[in-house]
Write a structure and sequence with these properties.
Elements: E1 4-6, E2 14-16, E3 23-28, E4 35-41, E5 44-47, E6 60-64, E7 76-85, E8 100-104, E9 117-118, E10 132-137, E11 154-160, H1 163-169, E12 179-183, E13 203-208, E14 211-220, E15 230-234, H2 239-246
Parallel strand pairs: 9-14
Antiparallel strand pairs: 1-2, 3-4, 3-6, 4-5, 5-8, 6-7, 7-8, 10-11, 10-13, 11-12, 12-15, 13-14, 14-15
């Protein structure tokens, strides 16, 4: 059993890594962290397309199995044998189709890691009921000119915004149909709130214990810019592409 660590990325509670063992580190052989990702099958990880711009498949690795970023004991490290960026991803419009699949050379859906299922449907958003989701990852917890990743996995909770509310707060950039935005329920200047540097690709889940299901990955974040919500990719909108690419039954 992993230890419980205090959450320092936002409001509330403790973090039991057992609940977040689907969270993967996207890295290279020489760097500890590029982005986050989610294990969705024995040899598949989903992440953001802007995290894996290179076609050199031998460049990327996946690590999972520890709450500590730099752990080398009792973790699983897998090589990426194929990168599948969405065919309509355009770096000039980063948040449109910002999704990628990584095919691995070894099984990662085993102890101490685990996979997560895609949700059956996206939560219904209305004015009377707030939908809370959870982010997890090792992104930066400082706002320096050269932000460093966290040494330990962090999580935070956020509420899903209605699409028009999100667009109103991001007036200078388009919010695409397959995006959704999240906003934090409160603000405290003593915390780095929300997603930050190297949190792209972090899994976004809905928790209905004992079930935890994946609905999105982070696409763009404001790193404590409270007035601008995170922009995320709705992975459920890409279920047919994921199924066709991986040959998985989802």
């Amino acid at each position: 059993m992993f230890s419980i660590v205090k959450c320092l990325r936002g409001p509330g509670g403790s973090l039991n890594f057992d609940y977040y063992a689907y969270t993967a580190i996207v890295k290279t052989r020489t760097t500890d962290l590029l982005c986050g990702g989610a294990i969705i099958a024995p040899r598949w990880v989903i992440t953001a397309a802007n995290c894996v711009p290179r076609n050199d498949r031998s460049y990327y690795q996946i690590k999972c199995g520890s709450q500590h970023l730099k752990d080398t004991d009792d973790v699983i490290v897998a090589n990426v044998i194929q990168v599948y960026r969405h065919p309509h991803y355009d770096p000039a419009n980063q948040n449109n189709n910002n999704i990628a699949l990584l095919h691995l050379d070894t099984v990662v859906d085993r102890e101490p890691c685990q996979s997560i299922k895609l949700a059956r449907s996206f939560p219904e958003i209305n004015q009377d009921k707030k939908i809370s989701v959870d982010f997890s990852g090792w992104g930066s917890i400082d706002k320096s000119s050269e932000p460093k990743p966290s040494d330990i996995i962090r999580r935070f909770a956020a509420n899903i915004l209605k699409q028009n509310d999100c667009q109103n707060r991001h007036q200078n950039k388009p919010i695409f149909v397959n995006n959704f935005c999240t906003s934090l329920p409160g603000y405290d200047p003593n915390f780095i709130y929300g997603a930050c540097a190297k949190d792209n690709g972090d899994p976004i889940v809905v928790k209905r214990f004992p079930n935890i299901t994946l609905i999105g990955i982070n696409s763009e974040n404001g790193c404590n810019t409270f007035e601008f919500p995170e922009i995320n990719t709705n992975v459920l909108a890409y279920r047919p592409w994921i199924r066709d690419t991986t040959k998985l039954i989802l």
